[in-house]
Amino acid sequence: TGTPAFDYQRPITTLISEQSARTPDAVALRFAQQSMTYAELEQASNQLAHCLNVRGIGAEDKVALVFERSLEMVISILAVVKAGAAYVPLEPSLPLERIAYIASNSGLSLFLGDDSLARLDSLGDLAERVTYQSLSLADYPSQLPGHDIPATQLAYVIYTSGSTGKPKGVGNQHSAIYNRIAWQQSAYPIGADDKVLQKTPFGFDVSVWEFFWPLMYGAELVIAEPGAHKDSTQLLDTINHFGVTTLHFVPSMLQAFIGHESVHTATSIRRILCSGEALPSEVQAQALSKLPLAKLYNLYGPTEAAVDVSHFTCHGDPALPVPIGAPIAGIRLYVLDRAL
């Protein structure tokens, strides 16, 4: 049994707004040559949230976001949640049949996206399609919408592959994702001197903490360019250029990354979080040997349980196994035999 769950008092987006008030001039987002301060991000996401509310989007509504990685992607995620709705991330590269199924199955109220929305012309009867660039937001209020968002309200819906072959929608409520991120901050504290890399495709639940965790605690969110998560050289360049301190890898990509001939130059990395696959002992040992200034953590959990349910601090010994570890706050793990 883990420690008691963190008490939900207000939405994670409200915590980000409070952080924005404390450090308005600090950089919140970086993407390629672009950047946004906390004040700029707050204003943009608040105005978009009001725009969504005026369009009738509110509590428990689902808004599909169809974006390549960009500043606008992050603004839109925050705005949907601030509007009281839940975001449904859809990678633009997904097959149209899968997007159509998700749109129909989830009961979408709106498609919001970048130019990728042009691919979805044939889905116009499922929900209205609006591009971010087409919206004129300057006339909307710049303050946080005054919604009372209870602990059980839906924050996001992510579609997994599904054991039946059909995508399965997994919704998570505000208290669950707050608990997960608050625990992560207590276990691996970050602050104003940290730079967290957002590289996980946003259709995977690891991306949820990548988006929200740094912005809740005053760190800088560095957004990798589209496709960079597949290219170790591009990742290394991004890490070194921006001084990334914190990032996530699935173990197979960590193995590829530490195999890069210049990985030893990534001296800004302080913490690596791993999940999504079993972490081989040899891989964690090599990672800690090649990146001696970094800590490496192995996490495990299903999408249904708000990203992760257990954690383990890696030891660096190639002869010892890497377990899934102990439960995080608010979680109880059961070890069952074949008879369940």
Automatic annotation (TrEMBL):
Gene3D superfamilies tied to this protein: N-terminal domain of ligase-like (3.40.50.12780)
Keyword terms of this UniProt record: Phosphopantetheine
Pfam family, one: AMP-binding
Family annotation (PROSITE patterns): AMP_BINDING
GO biological process, one term: secondary metabolite biosynthetic process
AMP-dependent synthetase/ligase domain sequence ranges: 18-338
Keyword match Cell wall biogenesis/degradation: no
GO molecular function annotation: phosphopantetheine binding
Family annotation (InterPro entries): AMP-binding_CS, AMP-dep_synth/lig_dom, ANL_N_sf
Cofactor needs: pantetheine 4'-phosphate
GO CC annotation terms, alphabetical: cytosol
Entry superkingdom: Bacteria
Matches recorded under SUPFAM superfamilies: Acetyl-CoA synthetase-like (SSF56801)
Protein name: Thioester reductase
